[in-house]
Write a structure and sequence with these properties.
alpha/beta; Alkaline Phosphatase, subunit A; eight-stranded mixed sheet; two-stranded antiparallel ribbon; Alkaline_phosphatase_core_sf
């Protein structure tokens, strides 16, 4: 299995599916796209790590980001108070020429995430920037939770609102930390602080995105993976629509995978090098 070689590979457009496992992708992609699929090894097991290890110089890229960690705010990852939990002194604005914060402009409060249509809309509305850049990245949030069928996302909502509040606090120099009021936003950090790295803590985060009835009936893994595949299919439908308008070499890949209990790991965490998180698709679209 080759390394991902994200920037070293030849492409004009790269469509990044956040937290997309190779195995699930390989089972369903050909219902939506034609092309040559490879399994490649990512450089990181989470978005902050992937970004930090991928974009190390200055790159002329129009980057449409549904992920709040890749933003144009200029706040280093190690200073983000919400969600990053890493020591990486990296910010997208120092390495990527033009970042579009679709996690702001295309955010859907009901879904708790950026749906695929938000990425597409931002892309079509900024064709001038696309034409000026050497290459273009569209970073979709799916199949990453929250799962669109439920419309009750909590995890990304916490991160998105927290980063916004941090930005506002820093701009006003009042030192605010972006405290949030929702039950999920309150519980999750406390659970993770108390049980950092444990399987129970990781499951607690995932449970925020699931229907308790489905968890009881089918188990956490089965309930989550069914919704995960559905999220991937929703993303692939959007990708298939936009690919027809792209002139050049198009790649569909992922920043990292997603774990559903493999080796006691749930979701995705930095520097957790297991196959479920490190093996990603690399599809050259025909």
């Amino acid at each position: 299995m080759d390394d991902q070689h994200f920037l070293e590979s030849e492409w004009d457009y790269c469509l990044v599916l956040d937290a997309c496992r190779y195995d699930v992708f390989s089972e369903v992609y050909d219902e939506y796209l034609d092309g040559t699929l490879e399994k490649r090894r990512s450089v990181g097991s989470s978005t902050p790590e992937w970004a930090y290890r991928t974009f190390t110089e200055e790159h002329d890229i129009a980057y449409f980001s549904g992920n709040p960690f890749i933003n144009d705010l200029g706040i280093p990852l190690n200073e983000l108070k919400w969600g990053a939990s890493c020591d990486y002194e990296w910010s997208a604005s120092n390495h990527i020429s033009n970042v579009f914060d679709v996690w702001k402009s295309g955010w859907d409060d009901d879904l708790g995430t950026v749906p695929p249509d938000g990425i597409a809309e931002a892309f079509y509305n900024n064709q001038g920037a696309v034409e000026e850049a050497d290459r273009t990245v569209l970073h979709y949030m799916q199949p990453h939770a929250p799962y669109l069928a439920r419309g009750k996302g909590q995890k990304l909502k916490q991160i998105q609102k927290g980063i916004r509040k941090q930005e506002e606090a820093e701009q006003s120099e009042d030192g605010g930390g972006g405290a949030l009021a929702s039950l999920g936003d309150t519980i999750r950090p406390k659970v993770e602080d108390r049980l950092e790295g444990s399987e129970l803590a990781q499951k607690a985060g995932l449970w925020l995105e699931l229907d308790p009835t489905e968890v009881v009936t089918n188990g956490t893994r089965e309930a989550a993976m069914a919704l995960y595949e559905e999220n991937l299919r929703i993303a692939l439908e959007s990708v298939a629509d936009i690919v027809d308008d792209l002139d050049g070499t198009v790649i569909v890949t992922a920043d990292h995978g997603e774990a559903f209990g493999e080796e006691g790991v749930w979701e995705h965490h930095i520097e957790t090098y297991i196959p479920a998180l490190m093996e990603v698709p690399w599809l050259e679209v025909e």
